[in-house]
Amino acid sequence: MPAKLIKGGRLVTPAGLINGDVLIVDDKIARIAPEGLAEGETPRDAEVFDASGCYVYPGFIDAHTHMQCWTGMDWTADSFETGTRAAACGGTTTIVDYATQDRGMTMPEALAEWHKRADGTCTANYGFHMAIAEWNGQTKADIPLMFEEGVSSFKTYFAYDHLKLDDAQTLDVLETIKPYGGILCVHCENGTVVNELQRRVFDAGVTGPEGHPLSRPDEVEAEAIARLGYLAELSGARVNVVHVSTEEGLKAATAARDRGVDVAIESCPQYMILDESHYLEPDFRGAKYVMSPPLRQQSDLSALCEGVLEGDVDTIATDHCSFNFFGQKDRGIGDFRKIPNGGPGVEHRPVLIMNLFEDELGPEDFCRLMSENPARVFGMYPRKGALVEGADADVCVWDPDVEWTISMKNQHQAVDYTPYEGYDVHGQPRQVFVNGELAVEHGEPTGTLPGRYVPREGAPATVTAKAGNCRCIW
């Protein structure tokens, strides 16, 4: 593979913004050259890519996706092949997807199944969290093996009857992964309350998509986040609150952090851009926005945007979980509880966030939220998430001046709609390199499949565990 020289860009590095060149040799960043490589330093066979007028980022990382996932009723619309291709077209070079150990399955079996789905098919790199739906002696005994296989993050649920663990089980998971430096991602909704509210809303005659947010009010998220915070405080383990959607939920997460809990806070573009009025779209089109947690009020959107600006939100992911409107979501006509939960977004996250915050944030902030921090939280930094010599050659050359309109017609996600249809935006990848190979040019895939599995490492917790009235390290 010939060397590649990305020439004359504005480099987004840990040392700040610098003008210069990036030299890629094989699958690594070989040189970061402020003011450019000197004459004679460029390999003779190097391909040269003009990055003038562009920002050069380390590839973006989406640490919350659900590709090629079976829900019990439907497969998601995006496979690993289509989903990682779409991700790369938007500038994302690594995803971390949720492999799921369903009940009756072991974690090694689940990991093998997700490798079978992903290996050899991906444009972007991929790692796996392990979602735990059944906590028993075998699952507990298999935790060390997961770390050996490069899985250092896990997920549990407080909602969904076929997935949720109780509080004692959640505490045991936290205590079990802590010595290995693991982190637990948690879907924070009070599932018992959601079940009851769904019944009440439906029985009251509200059967359309507008029933979805009514059955999942702010309180069910905030209560679950607060509960997770106390469980994490008891264990001393690291936690990641996924897809925070409400002002009260954000307050609960930051309150735990203020008490010394090692908590990472994730949110998503949909919770900063789209509000609950979309559920009232005619002809059942509100079903396109049925995801959990649901879209919220404008006050929640404002609070989350402020949380990004204040540094309370650590990472921005997508929770990409795509289902077609026709043939999948429309199965819930007459009963909102049967609408598959989830929406697409992996392709459009970088451009949406850059446009949303263009007056308040700059390239270094976008790098922190969508590349550096996900790499740090999930055990990939500085191999990924940093434009430094020796790092993996995952690079996004971002042209901020390209103007275009988001549409289902020009997206690469394999789903029949986008929640952001008709949004006028500016900014697009000029080139995207994955492991040193040109994967995307001018927003279009080149057809290569350079994506690789990314084994990840644990990290020690920065807090201690609480036992009785004292604090001690377990």
From TrEMBL:
SUPFAM superfamilies: Composite domain of metallo-dependent hydrolases (SSF51338), Metallo-dependent hydrolases (SSF51556). Coiled coil: none annotated. GO terms for molecular function: dihydropyrimidinase activity. It is an enzyme of class 3 (hydrolase). InterPro entries: Amidohydro-rel (IPR006680), Hydantoinase/dihydroPyrase (IPR011778), Metal-dep_hydrolase_composite (IPR011059), Metal_Hydrolase (IPR032466), Metallo-dep_Hydrolases_sf (IPR050378). Residues 55-438 form the Amidohydrolase-related domain. Its cofactor is Zn(2+). Its EC number is 3.5.2.2. Keywords: Hydrolase, Metal-binding. NCBIfam families: D-hydantoinase (TIGR02033). PANTHER family: COLLAPSIN RESPONSE MEDIATOR PROTEIN, HYDRANTOINASE/DIHYDROPYRIMIDINASE FAMILY MEMBER. Belongs to the metallo-dependent hydrolases superfamily. Hydantoinase/dihydropyrimidinase family. This is Dihydropyrimidinase. The lineage of its organism: Bacteria, Bacillati, Actinomycetota, Coriobacteriia, Coriobacteriales.
